Amino acid sequence: MKTDTRMTALWGDLRIIWAITSKDMLDAVKSKTTLSILLSALFIVVVYQFLPKFENPGGLPVMLVYDAGESQLLPALKRSPNLNVYTGYTSQAQLERKLVGGDIPELALTIPLGFDQGLGRGEPPPIEGYVQHWVSDSDAAQLKAQAEQEITHLAGQPVTIHLEGNLVYPTPDSGGRSFLTSLAILISITLIGIGLAPHLMVEEKQTKTLDALLVSPARSSHLVIAKALTGLSYCLIAAVVVLAINANLVLHWGLAIVAVVLSSLFVVSVGLLLGSLVGAKQVLPIWSMVALTVLMMPLFLAIMKDLLPPIAGVIFDWIPTVTLSRVLRGSFSRDLASMAFGLELLVVAGCTAVVMGGVAWTVRRSDR
Question: Which of 139, 151, 366, 367 qualifies as a FRET site for 125, CA 20 to 30 Å off?
């Protein structure tokens, strides 16, 4: 009997939450504010998707070359007008770190020891080639063909590049495309969460529907959960678009989905808290900008943490947006077994719960 009563109460709660959520979703679709926020998020996604292409305006194939034996081929490659060649690497590890930090498809080449001697005998050894793991087979084959053609021309005889299986994977601390993708996800989610969620609360206050809801069967918990679900839905739409565009980058979809959902919930909870505390719609943009700055600035400062005091780097690592950025980049990394993101996710979940609790407490106070 108690079980039946609990199930009836649960279904009643779910119906109330769904009623508020569906109303908010419909109101958001009709709102010009929602449209402007979604367009801003879409603009960010487009910018971060096409920004790397401006780094190579000439459109020449990008080659990173490490010379293990002081070959004469290296200076010849540097003078080539048909390739965009980068040199100066002192080890294979440094070469791979630079490659994984690339934003566009690039080819890394390692000229082996004894290459010139083999070339003199008419039997040049193959050059090892490497590409980022997200580069398509067609792009990798094109880079290989362009490099082989130019090297063959410079060497005066056929030279082959061995590329099969030579993929380079990022780490959670890598830059390049993995960082830009995580940044695009978090910025688009934050724009929507901080832009949309506060308006859901403030508009309820100004239209007096919040007071009506709180004297209806709906409780403050119903209201908070419904608003969170509405904000979460729109944040997930933006995140899904970014992940779909960069699907070839993701290696661990489970971790990526958990990070995206948790990021959305955290940002939406901050937005709801902001909306529950701000009384006037006119000042909401100012406070929203303050919240955006507080959430996003650490992401950019974390890039320069090597220039900051060590304690600052430790603090930045545990700011939720910075932590979530690293978790997202972890989903793009191959060796997940050696990484422990459980603590990071737990900390962000705890922060989200605390902020959500603050929202519920603030709404409950308004009921008194």
Answer: 139
